[in-house]
Amino acid sequence: MKCIVLEGAAGLDNLKLIERDIPRPGPGQILIRMKAASLNYRDLINVTMGIYKLPFIPLSDGCGVVEEIGEGVTRVKAGDRVAPSFFQTWLSGRPEAHLLGSSLGGPIDGCLTEYMCLSQDGVSKVPDFLTDEQVATLPCAGLTAWRGLMEAGLKAGETVVVQGTGGVSIFALQFAKAAGATVIATSSSDEKLARAKALGADHLINYKATPEWAKEVRKITGGLGADHIVEVGGAGTFVQSLQATRIDGHISVIGVVGGFTQDIPIAAIFGGNLHIKGISVGSRAMFEDMCRAIAVNRIEPVVDRTLPFAEARAGFELMKGQGHFGKIALKIA
Q1: Whole-number Å distance between alpha carbons of 30 and 123
Q2: 229: region left, alpha or beta (phi > 0 left; psi from -120 to 50 alpha)
Q3: What is the pTM of this model?
Q4: Domains recognised in the chain with CATH numbers
Q5: Residue 233 has what pLDDT?
Q6: DSSP codes, 175-235
Q7: How many whole angstroms separate alpha carbon 328 and alpha carbon 333?
Q8: In this predicted model, what pLDDT tens digit does every residue of 303-320 receive, in sequence order?
């Protein structure tokens, strides 16, 4: 089988297309013939910064078809279309340290391969109406947005701020609208904001033209602030998020696109009685809840473009330049 491996040292130059033997499933395991994968900002960091021990196969998100099952497998059968779980051993309940070390695409080999051999517990069946590429966007970006909003108790009529137009933010926009929320979208691109509006965004803020966008959020919400902020910018946006959130509101801290560290005005947190929660994807049970909601609401993930498997590096370069809207997918089969 063909797979793409990061070996030798971190960096896009060290992504290598190699051949490996097709693995065979043991008891409780399944062999998946991969059909598609997608990229996350996490994958770019893992490849360029050398977070995990080398070599490893990148990418946490994928979609495939069960090719073969091992002894004792009952959750799926040959021919089922499935998505591997981001965390292979976080099945349900609260996160624990030993569960969060089981993520695909580092430290465990990921989805940039023609075949994967996984535990039957580490996959879920997926909505039939989605394409392989759309399914491949769900395990990390989709589930992160779902947990950041739904696990925080999003209710109809509340206001959600989504930052930028990457995968997590676009999923958050779609889930929020399906739940009956008002969505404020931010971006530095008027063109991307227009596309966000077409997906249902109610209010648009160009943060390049309005750097102190928290004031605009306050204005839109009649001075109250937003109920939920999907915080993907990290150091570059966190203080604005604090200022844009209503009393007793929720900030789901998801990304670090704008940097890792920032001086925090602590008084704004306790003074605003804010709920600030770090979100690192979610459990298999959360994923399956999300898939049911996607099926009922016929939510279609936004795939900006799909590249051939062998052009994975071009996908990473595109993500690095932040030129995409929604997700970047790779066609494997």
Answers
A1: 9
A2: beta
A3: 0.95
A4: 2-137+301-331 (3.90.180.10), 142-278 (3.40.50.720)
A5: 85
A6: HHHHTT-EEEEEES-HHHHHHHHHTT-SEEEETTT-S-HHHHHHHHTTTS-EEEEEE-SGG
A7: 16
A8: 999 999 999 999 999 999
